[in-house]
Amino acid sequence: MSTSSSTVLRNVHQREVPASAEEVWALVERLGTAADCLWPSDRWPALRLDRGVAIGSKGGHGPIRYHVAEVEEGTWVRFAFDPAGGFVGGHEFRLESTDHGTRLAHELEVHAPGIVLTGLILPLHDALLEDLLDDLEANIRRVPSRRRRLPVGVCVRRTVIDVVEALSAPFAGRSVTAAG
Question: Which residues lie in coiled coils (predicted)?
Fold first, then answer.
Protein backbone atom coordinates (compact mmCIF):
# COMPACT_ATOMS: atom_id res chain seq x y z
CA MET A 1 0.00 0.00 0.00
CA SER A 2 1.32 3.40 -0.96
CA THR A 3 1.85 5.99 1.78
CA SER A 4 0.48 8.65 -0.55
CA SER A 5 -2.94 6.99 -0.77
CA SER A 6 -5.84 8.96 0.57
CA THR A 7 -9.26 8.18 1.89
CA VAL A 8 -12.45 9.97 0.90
CA LEU A 9 -14.60 10.65 3.90
CA ARG A 10 -18.16 11.92 3.84
CA ASN A 11 -19.63 12.77 7.22
CA VAL A 12 -22.98 14.39 8.01
CA HIS A 13 -24.35 15.87 11.23
CA GLN A 14 -27.79 17.45 11.41
CA ARG A 15 -30.34 18.79 13.83
CA GLU A 16 -33.90 19.99 13.42
CA VAL A 17 -34.91 22.97 15.53
CA PRO A 18 -38.29 24.70 16.02
CA ALA A 19 -37.35 27.87 14.16
CA SER A 20 -37.66 29.44 10.74
CA ALA A 21 -34.88 29.16 8.19
CA GLU A 22 -34.38 32.92 8.59
CA GLU A 23 -33.73 32.53 12.33
CA VAL A 24 -31.25 29.72 11.77
CA TRP A 25 -29.51 31.53 8.91
CA ALA A 26 -29.09 34.59 11.15
CA LEU A 27 -26.93 32.38 13.39
CA VAL A 28 -25.05 30.67 10.53
CA GLU A 29 -24.10 33.93 8.82
CA ARG A 30 -22.33 35.07 12.01
CA LEU A 31 -19.92 32.10 11.97
CA GLY A 32 -16.30 33.15 12.37
CA THR A 33 -17.14 36.69 13.51
CA ALA A 34 -17.09 38.39 16.91
CA ALA A 35 -20.88 37.83 17.06
CA ASP A 36 -20.60 34.05 16.48
CA CYS A 37 -22.74 32.18 19.01
CA LEU A 38 -22.83 28.80 17.22
CA TRP A 39 -19.18 27.78 17.16
CA PRO A 40 -18.29 26.08 20.47
CA SER A 41 -15.12 28.10 21.04
CA ASP A 42 -15.40 27.62 24.79
CA ARG A 43 -13.75 24.21 24.33
CA TRP A 44 -12.59 24.09 20.69
CA PRO A 45 -10.22 26.31 18.71
CA ALA A 46 -12.21 29.35 17.61
CA LEU A 47 -13.40 29.64 14.03
CA ARG A 48 -12.11 32.85 12.47
CA LEU A 49 -13.09 34.21 9.06
CA ASP A 50 -11.52 37.45 7.90
CA ARG A 51 -14.74 38.68 6.28
CA GLY A 52 -17.39 36.45 7.85
CA VAL A 53 -19.61 34.27 5.70
CA ALA A 54 -18.79 35.96 2.39
CA ILE A 55 -17.34 34.42 -0.76
CA GLY A 56 -13.55 34.53 -0.61
CA SER A 57 -13.39 35.03 3.15
CA LYS A 58 -10.36 33.15 4.52
CA GLY A 59 -9.83 31.53 7.88
CA GLY A 60 -10.32 28.29 9.70
CA HIS A 61 -10.02 26.81 13.17
CA GLY A 62 -6.90 25.48 14.86
CA PRO A 63 -4.55 24.18 12.15
CA ILE A 64 -7.40 23.62 9.65
CA ARG A 65 -7.46 26.31 6.93
CA TYR A 66 -10.20 26.99 4.40
CA HIS A 67 -12.10 29.76 2.65
CA VAL A 68 -15.74 30.47 1.86
CA ALA A 69 -16.20 29.08 -1.65
CA GLU A 70 -19.94 29.53 -2.19
CA VAL A 71 -22.89 31.10 -0.41
CA GLU A 72 -26.56 30.94 -1.21
CA GLU A 73 -28.01 33.52 1.16
CA GLY A 74 -30.41 31.93 3.62
CA THR A 75 -29.80 28.40 2.36
CA TRP A 76 -26.18 27.19 2.51
CA VAL A 77 -22.52 28.07 2.76
CA ARG A 78 -19.66 25.95 1.40
CA PHE A 79 -16.06 26.09 2.59
CA ALA A 80 -13.12 24.72 0.57
CA PHE A 81 -10.02 23.42 2.36
CA ASP A 82 -6.61 24.90 1.71
CA PRO A 83 -4.79 21.92 0.12
CA ALA A 84 -1.49 23.11 1.64
CA GLY A 85 -2.90 21.83 4.95
CA GLY A 86 -3.05 18.27 3.64
CA PHE A 87 -6.79 18.13 3.01
CA VAL A 88 -8.66 18.32 -0.28
CA GLY A 89 -12.39 18.90 -0.28
CA GLY A 90 -14.63 20.98 1.86
CA HIS A 91 -17.53 21.24 4.22
CA GLU A 92 -20.83 23.03 4.19
CA PHE A 93 -23.81 24.06 6.26
CA ARG A 94 -27.23 23.60 4.63
CA LEU A 95 -30.65 24.69 5.86
CA GLU A 96 -33.84 22.87 4.98
CA SER A 97 -37.34 23.86 6.06
CA THR A 98 -39.32 21.03 7.65
CA ASP A 99 -42.87 20.61 8.95
CA HIS A 100 -41.62 21.42 12.46
CA GLY A 101 -38.99 24.09 11.81
CA THR A 102 -35.60 23.97 10.13
CA ARG A 103 -32.95 21.31 9.77
CA LEU A 104 -29.34 22.47 9.83
CA ALA A 105 -26.99 19.93 8.28
CA HIS A 106 -23.21 20.02 8.20
CA GLU A 107 -21.58 17.85 5.56
CA LEU A 108 -17.86 17.15 5.37
CA GLU A 109 -16.27 15.66 2.27
CA VAL A 110 -12.51 15.38 2.49
CA HIS A 111 -9.63 13.48 0.92
CA ALA A 112 -6.63 12.86 3.16
CA PRO A 113 -4.49 9.99 4.44
CA GLY A 114 -6.87 7.44 5.98
CA ILE A 115 -5.14 7.18 9.34
CA VAL A 116 -5.28 10.95 9.75
CA LEU A 117 -8.99 11.07 8.99
CA THR A 118 -10.30 8.05 10.83
CA GLY A 119 -7.70 7.83 13.57
CA LEU A 120 -7.33 11.47 14.52
CA ILE A 121 -9.66 13.95 12.84
CA LEU A 122 -13.04 12.19 12.66
CA PRO A 123 -13.62 11.70 16.41
CA LEU A 124 -12.66 15.34 17.06
CA HIS A 125 -14.83 16.57 14.20
CA ASP A 126 -17.82 14.56 15.44
CA ALA A 127 -17.53 15.93 18.99
CA LEU A 128 -17.11 19.52 17.78
CA LEU A 129 -20.14 19.30 15.47
CA GLU A 130 -22.36 17.87 18.19
CA ASP A 131 -21.31 20.78 20.43
CA LEU A 132 -22.14 23.21 17.60
CA LEU A 133 -25.57 21.66 17.10
CA ASP A 134 -26.17 21.81 20.87
CA ASP A 135 -25.34 25.54 20.67
CA LEU A 136 -27.79 25.92 17.78
CA GLU A 137 -30.56 24.33 19.79
CA ALA A 138 -29.72 26.36 22.92
CA ASN A 139 -29.77 29.62 20.94
CA ILE A 140 -33.11 28.80 19.33
CA ARG A 141 -34.68 27.73 22.63
CA ARG A 142 -33.01 30.67 24.43
CA VAL A 143 -31.49 28.47 27.12
CA PRO A 144 -27.86 28.03 28.20
CA SER A 145 -25.88 25.49 26.19
CA ARG A 146 -25.19 22.30 28.09
CA ARG A 147 -21.92 20.56 27.36
CA ARG A 148 -21.90 16.80 27.30
CA ARG A 149 -18.83 15.04 28.58
CA LEU A 150 -16.22 14.46 25.88
CA PRO A 151 -15.29 10.83 25.24
CA VAL A 152 -11.90 9.80 26.64
CA GLY A 153 -10.57 9.13 23.12
CA VAL A 154 -11.40 12.71 22.11
CA CYS A 155 -9.61 14.09 25.19
CA VAL A 156 -6.53 11.98 24.42
CA ARG A 157 -6.45 13.15 20.78
CA ARG A 158 -6.78 16.78 21.83
CA THR A 159 -3.90 16.36 24.29
CA VAL A 160 -1.70 14.79 21.60
CA ILE A 161 -2.45 17.68 19.22
CA ASP A 162 -1.73 20.26 21.94
CA VAL A 163 1.62 18.62 22.75
CA VAL A 164 2.66 18.40 19.09
CA GLU A 165 1.71 22.05 18.52
CA ALA A 166 3.58 23.15 21.66
CA LEU A 167 6.70 21.22 20.66
CA SER A 168 6.68 22.56 17.10
CA ALA A 169 5.91 26.20 18.05
CA PRO A 170 9.53 27.13 18.96
CA PHE A 171 10.62 26.02 15.47
CA ALA A 172 7.86 27.69 13.47
CA GLY A 173 9.23 30.20 11.01
CA ARG A 174 12.86 29.32 11.64
CA SER A 175 15.16 28.07 8.96
CA VAL A 176 17.90 25.64 9.72
CA THR A 177 21.29 26.32 8.16
CA ALA A 178 24.52 24.44 8.40
CA ALA A 179 27.29 26.21 10.30
CA GLY A 180 30.37 26.36 8.34
Answer: none
